[in-house]
């Protein structure tokens, strides 16, 4: 029996309620609740205030399992802090009667006769001024005089005043108070202007007290530095299996024009090659992943982790449940990208045809998952049938769908890369191999006869692995050809794409590159399949150095195949006898020590270094091995260097302080042999206080050149997907509403990048409609310095300049309100914080 509550509640007493699970409908409903008001607690005419902090969107998920279950179960839980109505539903599973559901969900009302609410933006930038609205609701029998206190005891922000902004002076205040008259069964709004001075989450704590009642709320506001964050991760495989001591050095390289005080430096240590991956299964990369191929990032790494942890006897029930949950979700979602003919494509039925590449990827991955979750074999078989129908007479597999990943689906390898990739999907579905043996033989012959003289390193790497799996007579020759094209440096080894002469000074080529990781991973798999584990170790060391701080890589394919390669070798070298001491030295004489042993192999140990740290020395002693990483981030608020896209965001003339129309024109910058991009992704950020106009998104999705539109970060960023971009300019228009009052906004970012080649990127910033302190201040806060013209531009108010919110039969009647007050009232009706 499962009982679940969802809604959007008050730090009150514990409430116990019994439900009769024998009945078709859950009986009983908790009565309207009010906080007990004990007059004996009055101090100086005011009631002690309980500050509400917990505001979950869903609350109770209770699994009732008892051998002696009699049909009733009493559940005692503390009600969360949100003022709301919780919806109670339940279902049961019985081996005889099957699934049982409550026929009518029940409601649990949680209420206070006097409470406060506030509504915060998703985030603001440091140095901006934000007006925080506070609504005081009074459902008592008489009007109340409320003293509203805005707390700043941690000095995380400054209170902003018009006069101080004009004369550029400020003073530290631990709190600010306002008094407001709140009639019975009404609401009143006051606002406070603050300028955050601390980065990260700051505490917004507001209390309201009267002689008879009191309430408070505490919420977190995210404060970010200006510009766009840039992430760098440097990692090393510290191998003490054949040396008593290992020394490593990392350098923190932050550009001089980085945003001041935006640098964060962190060191992490773990005793398992896949340890950081296990810790971050739900966030392996920082790119969005909203198409059919990218969705597999929710799927394949979990297979790799489960296989690896089982093989090394490290699997716990908690990790297994988490991984299977992600796999089942990814599996069901991937089926939405399936066509009726059994093929798959990046955007499902919005694509005219299925994709050879993605269908092979799915067939291969579904087979790997079948040992962990329930996968319908008919779906795999249908996908392989569709692939068989696409095979050309010469044995190759051409791409019949959209080309999203040119190195895989096209490139200079005469289709060898895609044919080898598709061949791998057939070879790994061994139970179905007899049915498709003729298809496999033709594909193997095609790959083998085109190897000699192949200069495309990417195609050669995939072909080498396919021929190893097929146990073809040319497998050793192919591996030798591939090995001859490797690059070595010290104890590391890797493969990379040739850098075009026109891009020889492109700084992005010096950073981890998705295609280089992908081809090096296939090379490593080939060496491992050939039994050359020692030769694979230098490749593993290089791959570890290319990972991000989450345990993934840059995009989907490199993360998937990279983790498969790492897991295969890690399973062979995994040890339960690790005993490593890591000494981290920085800033001349400062040190930290971390120990790694069999008890904490899978625990990611990390600590933050001062942002001034430049050189970090690592000294490792003991036995076994560990992974040491130095991760740091900083923000840039200038145009990106060496752009491979034209990017021109322009605010349209019909924009104003309350509504933003933004046209973003973009095109690909062609170079020798590169006339178009792979799948491109554009991320459009809005100025603080603005959120996307969701009503305009369908028109964007209906454009031929836009494949998908997503929102993220509280609807403050719009993500657009393009099949590819060429020299022809495209200019989508994005719209946003002002939902929160923010003045002195910093420029907003727009970035576009090639999903499968992160050396192709462009970054720009734009200024939205300007707002001053006079545009967001309220009443007495505006002072005499705000011009008469600015006052006239404000929305009309009632005589007191406050919101009049009256509850009538569950609805809200709004009196004379400013635009901001209307928004707050509507949000409160919906969310009741």
Automatic annotation (TrEMBL):
PANTHER family: CD109 ANTIGEN, MACROGLOBULIN / COMPLEMENT. CDD domains: A2M_2. Signal peptide: none annotated. This is CD109 antigen. PROSITE patterns: ALPHA_2_MACROGLOBULIN. Residues 58-150 form the Alpha-2-macroglobulin domain. Residues 677-766 form the Alpha-macroglobulin receptor-binding domain.
């Amino acid at each position: 029996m499962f009982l679940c509550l969802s809604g959007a509640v008050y730090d009150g007493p514990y409430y116990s309620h019994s439900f009769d699970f024998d009945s078709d409908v859950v009986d009983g409903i908790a009565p309207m609740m009010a906080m007990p008001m004990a007059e004996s607690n009055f101090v100086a005419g005011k009631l002690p205030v309980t500050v509400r902090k917990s505001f979950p969107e869903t609350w109770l998920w209770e699994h009732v399992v008892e051998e002696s279950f009699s049909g009733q179960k009493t559940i005692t839980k503390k009600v969360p802090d949100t003022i709301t109505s919780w919806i109670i539903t339940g279902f049961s599973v019985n081996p005889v009667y099957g699934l049982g559901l409550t026929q009518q969900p029940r409601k649990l009302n949680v209420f206070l006769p006097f409470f406060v609410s506030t509504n915060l933006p998703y985030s603001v930038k440091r140095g901006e001024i934000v007006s925080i609205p506070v609504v005081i609701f009074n459902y008592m029998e008489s009007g109340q005089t409320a003293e509203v206190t805005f707390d700043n005891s941690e000095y995380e922000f400054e209170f902003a005043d018009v006069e101080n902004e004009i004369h550029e002076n400020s003073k530290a205040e631990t709190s600010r108070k306002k008094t407001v008259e709140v009639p019975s069964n009404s609401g009143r709004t006051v606002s406070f202007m603050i300028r955050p001075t601390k980065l990260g989450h700051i505490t917004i704590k507001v209390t309201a007290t009267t002689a008879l009642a009191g309430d408070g709320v505490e919420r977190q506001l995210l404060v970010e530095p200006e510009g766009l964050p840039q992430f760098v991760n440097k990692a090393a495989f510290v191998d003490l299996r054949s040396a008593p001591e290992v020394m490593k050095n990392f350098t923190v390289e932050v550009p001089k024009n980085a945003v001041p005080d935006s640098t964060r430096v962190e060191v992490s240590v773990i005793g398992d090659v896949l340890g950081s991956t296990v810790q971050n299964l739900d966030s392996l990369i920082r790119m969005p992943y909203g198409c059919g191929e990218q969705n597999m990032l929710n799927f394949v790494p979990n297979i790799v982790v489960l296989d690896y942890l089982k093989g090394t006897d490290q699997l716990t029930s908690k990790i297994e449940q988490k991984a299977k949950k992600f796999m089942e979700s990814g599996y069901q979602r991937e089926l939405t990208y399936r066509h009726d003919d059994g093929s798959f494509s990046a955007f499902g039925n919005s694509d005219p045809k299925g994709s050879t590449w993605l269908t092979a990827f799915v067939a291969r991955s579904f087979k790997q998952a079948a040992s962990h979750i329930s996968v319908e074999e008919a779906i795999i078989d249908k996908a392989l049938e569709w692939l068989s129908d696409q095979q050309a007479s010469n044995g190759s597999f051409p791409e019949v769908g959209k080309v999203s990943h040119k190195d895989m689906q096209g490139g200079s390898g005469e289709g060898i890369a895609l044919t080898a990739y598709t061949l791998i999907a057939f070879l790994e579905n061994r139970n179905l191999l007899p049915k498709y043996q003729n298809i496999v033989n033709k594909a193997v012959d095609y790959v083998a006869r085109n190897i000699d003289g192949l200069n495309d390193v990417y195609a050669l790497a995939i072909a080498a692995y396919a021929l190893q799996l097929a146990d073809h007579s040319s497998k050793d020759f192919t591996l030798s050809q591939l090995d001859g094209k490797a690059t070595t440096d010290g104890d590391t080894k890797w493969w990379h794409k040739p850098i075009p002469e026109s891009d020889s000074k492109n700084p992005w080529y010096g950073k981890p590159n998705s295609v280089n990781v992908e081809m090096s991973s296939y090379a490593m798999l080939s060496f491992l399949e050939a039994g050359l584990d020692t030769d694979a170790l230098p490749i593993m060391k290089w791959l570890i150095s290319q990972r991000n701080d989450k345990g993934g890589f840059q995009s989907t394919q490199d993360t998937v195949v990279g983790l498969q390669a790492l897991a295969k070798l890690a399973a062979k070298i995994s040890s339960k006898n690790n005993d490593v001491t890591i000494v981290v030295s920085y800033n001349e004489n400062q040190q930290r020590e971390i120990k790694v042993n069999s008890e904490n192999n899978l625990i990611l140990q990390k600590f933050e270094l001062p942002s001034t740290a430049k050189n970090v020395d690592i000294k490792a002693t003991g036995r076994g091995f560990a992974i040491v990483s130095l991760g740091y981030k900083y923000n840039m608020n200038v145009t990106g260097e060496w752009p491979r896209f034209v990017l021109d965001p322009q605010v349209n003339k019909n924009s104003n302080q309350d509504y933003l129309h933004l046209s973003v024109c973009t095109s690909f910058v062609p170079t020798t042999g590169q006339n178009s991009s792979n799948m491109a992704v554009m991320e459009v950020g809005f100025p603080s206080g603005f959120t996307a106009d969701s009503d305009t998104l369908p028109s964007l999705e209906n454009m031929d050149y836009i494949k998908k539109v997503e929102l993220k970060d509280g609807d403050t960023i719009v993500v657009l997907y393009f099949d590819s971009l060429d020299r022809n300019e495209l200019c989508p228009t994005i719209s946003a509403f002002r939902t929160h009052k923010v003045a002195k906004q910093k420029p907003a970012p727009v970035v576009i990048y090639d999903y499968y080649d992160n050396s192709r990127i462009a970054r720009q910033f734009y200024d939205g409609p300007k707002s001053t302190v006079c545009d967001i201040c309220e009443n007495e806060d505006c002072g005499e310095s705000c011009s008469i013209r600015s006052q006239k531009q404000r929305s009309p108010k009632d005589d007191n300049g406050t919101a009049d919110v009256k509850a009538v039969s569950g609805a809200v009647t709004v009196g004379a309100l400013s635009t901001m007050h209307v928004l707050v009232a509507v949000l409160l009706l919906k969310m009741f914080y």
